[in-house]
Design goal:
This protein has five helices and no strands. The protein is an all-alpha fold. The protein has one domain: 23S rRNA-intervening sequence (de novo design (two linked rop proteins)). It is about 75% helix and about 0% strand.
């Protein structure tokens, strides 16, 4: 296993950051009336994933803490999927964007599950 020197080297970090940026761009077109509800919620949950990956990376010396942070990432990814459903059902994003992002978050969740299940491999020796 190649040990990353920075969280920014992690594929899951890059993928989650890029997805959050895509959501940011799409959410610029949400109605003003959603600014303090759907817009802020989907931005917050999507950004939280990469932020928590960064934090988990620095906690990898403590497997239980690492697992907890990775689990938070999984939860935020699922929450983001929920907000994407709302954005689509409210007509704020099209089905293609919703489906692509939903699939991306499925991939992210899969990567996070693998990280969580192999937490001891992440601990520095």
């Amino acid at each position: 296993m190649n040990i990353a020197k920075s969280y920014k080297e992690l594929k899951v970090y890059k993928k989650s950051y890029q997805a959050a940026m895509k959501i940011f761009e799409l959410s610029k077109n949400f109605p003003q009336s959603e600014q303090f509800s759907l817009t802020s919620q989907v931005r917050k949950s999507s950004r939280s994933i990469s932020a928590n990956i960064a934090e988990a990376f620095r906690r990898k010396i403590y497997p239980k803490s690492f697992i907890s942070k990775i689990n938070e990432c999984e939860a935020e990814a699922a929450e983001t999927q929920n907000w994407l459903d709302f954005a689509y059902d409210c007509g704020f994003i099209d089905q293609n964007n919703r489906d692509r992002l939903y699939h991306t978050y499925d991939e992210i969740i899969g990567m996070l599950v693998n990280m969580r299940l192999s937490a001891n491999k992440w601990k520095p020796h």
